């Protein structure tokens, strides 16, 4: 039996031996090859094996645990699946989680990095552009990070969007990739004066970052509603914002979203509204069936969202591979296919496979506009893809994080390394949606590519919504201003 020891340097960083790292790389290779349904969607078997061999070579000498984790990040990023993640646990997990952070929230556009929120103690104007950090130019920084983190498909927009958010934030990931330091040399162009300044900034802890952010930006802490709509009768449009495709939990009543949709479309029908803007920006996903219920109001014939949902094996297969039963056979009604994989036949848990009929009572036949961005992911990416496929909607914004016609997020497992404090989180089921085969493997691309300038972000101007409002609404006779806006939230 291999005896595992976690050596430590004087700086208390964990050091792994070659047999530890290579032992876990072999585990991850097996799992990604035999369990993950999308490992070879964007790479060949030969490319995958070549990468594993290169990593075996890299780990032929002792290495810090943090450096090994970066190798694992690259392996996972190459899969280009947003539901597949590498993570750490134990002592290494604590080290990674408690790394010092950059004192900024950023906005990334066109390979340029802007300071959106300044949480340092220096008077740097928000909106200023970061030109370099420790002599690393901003575009080099962005592309280096993208070799360690990716989104669905091979588009970069989704990940660049997420670097500006809370989950894969730039302030946390930069020290992780470019090495944690107490100070950094920063060169920036001031937002107001346009002067280029070089300064030294101090990194801060996660707790200090959170405390400063809550004090400085108190008004932004309220939770976002799952869905809401409002009607502007003067301009003759309805605006529907869907922030996620579940309200409170995945186990909630199945009619939660259908009830909301019915209420919304009835009012649109009763008020003779001819324009509808559906906002899917920053929608992190949820249940794809809730996207299908929405689509029912726009189609004139029955449809089935998912063409097929498959997995690489049944309970016996995964019990042998993982040493544990997953109760897939009963839950999903798995049936063998000729290619050795298994297809889902039980629609109870996966309503994406059901056939949905048009809802005629309050169907919408007017102008449809859908807003998307790099935060539109998972089931929201599917929703955007289906709306693009089945309707004549104009999609406005930027390319989504999530696939147009694939989802690998239905059933997921975690596999921990035996010899290192690293792990991977991966899906077991692969859904192929009824979207044109030539765009299934890419994120959803808008018809009108509109993004925010840093000026828009600082001044909180919604350029994407404004573009749709000014340029795409079907013009109708104006209605007097009384009772112009009706708003409902859930």
TrEMBL record:
Domain Tail specific protease per the UniProt entry, residue ranges: 193-451
UniProt GO MF annotations: endopeptidase activity; serine-type peptidase activity
BP-aspect Gene Ontology terms: proteolysis
Species annotation: Aquimarina spongiae
Matches recorded under InterPro entries: ClpP/crotonase-like_dom_sf, Tail-specific_protease
Name assigned to this protein: Peptidase family S41
